[in-house]
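Side project, low priority. Logging it here so it doesn't get lost.
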Amino acid sequence: MNDDPYTYPGTDILRNRLGLADDALLNEAERRLTLARGAHAARLAFPCTADGYRALHKHLFQDLYEWAGQDRSVNIAKGGSRFAAPPYIARELDKLFSDMAARNDFRALSRDDFFDRLGNHINELNAIHPFREGNGRTMRHHAVHVSREAGHPIRIASIDKTLWMDASRHGFLTGDHRAMAAVLFAAAIQRDAAPEARIGAHGIALLPQRAPPTGQRYRVTLNKVRDELERYLPSARQQAGERLRALVADDAPSAQIANARTELAYVRHAKGPVYQSHLLTYLGVRQVDAVITAEQTPLERVREIGAALGVQINTQQSVQLQKAVRALERPILPPGYAPGQERLAAQFLKNSSESNLADTRLVAAQGIVDAAMQTARERGESARMVTSIGESTRQLVAERIRSGDALDGGLGNGIMPSSPQPPAKDRSR
């Protein structure tokens, strides 16, 4: 049974002003109508506030949905990961836009700093996902508006939708906003020559192809590698950008410019050297052989470290490499959840009922489960049904613990809980 108030009964089709009950027709109508509204939105001003963001969504989707511009009231998820729970949406939006206002709406920043900040902002908006539908389109139009006002305009048609989705997914699962920053930077109008990453297996960034480095090789632990990257990577990124601009200004050979672009993309990439050092640590590698000298510039040092990391990565079995990549992309907790709550919920599910009753933090939660099972017994339910009710109640209580909600609202009255409804699927494109 579908209890989503936003959809027509028994379907996943969103209720809409046009009365369309066919998903393909609704998608096409949504595309056309928001395209027209988006062209108009480009000539309007929307305040960089939570209410301004809601107004933008309402403008884009007013022809389709009664609830355009309103925070959603149901949970939604994508790929098994939930976005912000409804009770936390308004608070998180206010917090995000207050942070933006404190930073002067990202004005007076260099291009690199602006897109880094904008990428983080969009990443956080994506985690909140305040609307039942249309979050992706609203975020892209918002990014265009912010970039225009900050003096670093981007063209919405130049935003690569596939890379946008990949960056959104990566950012949501890992909290790393750099991939989104790169997507937005690539859509900039009159931008510097755009870096073009050379990508290997599992999206891992690679350096430009070149001859192996010469000189005395030293064994460097991965802990030392990370210390070196923390110290030299910011300067290396700046030097890589300056080098690329100089080559373009000097009309250097296209092969040199292409290599410089790839190198710049590598030092900026979400799966660049820092990521690769953690990947190898997970795989049990403890050190790499690198050519390191005191005379190297930060870019030269990072380049040699990256080459050494690449050598080790290329020796790994593909299956093990894929396992490590997945391990490094464990979902982060959505707004409203906290690591302590997550651990407590996991402990509640792991413990025996006796252990929970002996734990002052969990005794009330276990009492709810016991009461539900006792009520089922008194109704004459079978042993199998009593066990099923107990497990269902345990899962509901654990979800309350994770989200920090009060342990009441129908769970503590001994009434058999109804089957929890799964979060609605996010349809945003």
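Brief comment: The chain has a mean pLDDT of 85.
Revisit when time allows.
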